[in-house]
Design a protein that fits this description.
- Strand 2 and strand 3 form a beta hairpin.
- The termini are close together.
- An 8-stranded antiparallel beta barrel has the order 1-2-3-4-5-7-8-9.
- The chain is mostly beta strands.
- The protein has a single domain, classed as Porin.
């Protein structure tokens, strides 16, 4: 079993998905372990209590990791005007390539601006077979 641990800052955008009330699509990118480009895509479903999220993180040339929410994410106003601040934890539910059968957890601490700009700081601990 291999253990992959990394921290990454991802930058990109989020916007409502047309025709799906309360659902936001997010796409960010950054640099992951070993200097590999990583790309993040997710769907965020808002609720009165917070939000849930499902998605994929693709590691260029290595494969991808699928995830869903542990519990519920929280987001609220930050001290910066026009910027929301939030956190969520994801359960790794599998993947492909080097990440086939992966398990683990990823935490996210992020900001989301009125213009749709996303800055997401992720910490991952992923186990592969």
């Amino acid at each position: 079993m291999a253990e992959i641990v990394y921290a990454a800052e991802m930058r990109g955008a989020g916007a409502p998905i047309e025709g799906r009330e309360g659902v936001i699509g997010a796409a960010t990118s950054g640099v992951g372990p070993g200097g590999v480009d990583i790309a993040f895509k997710s769907e965020v479903v808002m609720s009165e209590d917070g939000f849930t999220e499902t998605g994929t993180i693709t590691h260029a040339g290595r494969g991808s990791v699928n995830f869903d929410t542990v519990g519920i994410g929280k987001m609220g106003p930050s001290p910066v005007d026009g910027v929301m601040h939030g956190t969520i934890m994801w359960n790794v539910t599998g993947g492909d390539g080097e990440f086939a059968g992966a398990t683990g957890l990823i935490t996210s601490n992020f900001t989301f601006s009125e213009q749709g700009d996303v800055i997401d700081n992720q910490y991952a601990r992923i186990y592969t077979a």
